[in-house]
Design brief:
- By secondary structure, this protein is mainly alpha-helical.
- The protein has one domain.
- 86% of the residues lie in helices and 0% in strands.
- Helix 2 crosses helix 3 and helix 2 crosses helix 4.
- The longest helix is centred in the first third of the chain and has 55 residues.
Length: 134
């Protein structure tokens, strides 16, 4: 069974459609909560926070899956480069949020936190479910 999983590269990204759907639902919920908190600016900030996490995690998954299928020796350097790029961009976004007077900055932060918690939780659940089937 392990050889079949290793031979089929689709398992590396099979969770992305489901996680993207969960993230879209979370984005709508976050936008609603942000709107109640701070109007349209709050809705935009909360939705943008979830979107940042969704794009970030999806990018990591795709880069790592691609590197593993093309040449496993690329996993470490490309994985680390991806994380450096992601966290640099996240730092720039958060630095902008902290220093600005934009009303959506607090919902942006909460959207990022919600996105991280939900994405990580759903991905852990997905992997648990997948390994328990095998």
């Amino acid at each position: 069974m392990v050889n079949q999983v290793a031979a089929d590269p689709r398992w590396r990204v099979e969770h992305l459609p489901f996680l993207s759907a969960v993230s879209a639902a979370l984005m709508l919920c976050a936008a609603s909560a942000g709107f109640l908190y701070g109007g349209p600016q709050g809705a935009l900030g909360a939705a943008a926070g979830v979107l940042v996490v969704t794009v970030s995690y999806s990018m990591s998954t795709l880069v790592i899956a691609w590197a593993d299928t093309v040449r496993p020796a690329l996993l470490m350097p490309l994985g680390l480069l991806t994380y450096v790029v992601k966290y640099t961009l996240l730092g720039i976004i958060l630095a902008f949020g902290v220093t600005s007077d934009w009303p959506g900055r607090l919902p942006l932060g909460y959207g990022i936190v919600a996105g991280v918690v939900v994405w990580t939780g759903v991905q852990a659940w997905w992997m648990y479910r997948r390994t328990s089937r095998k």
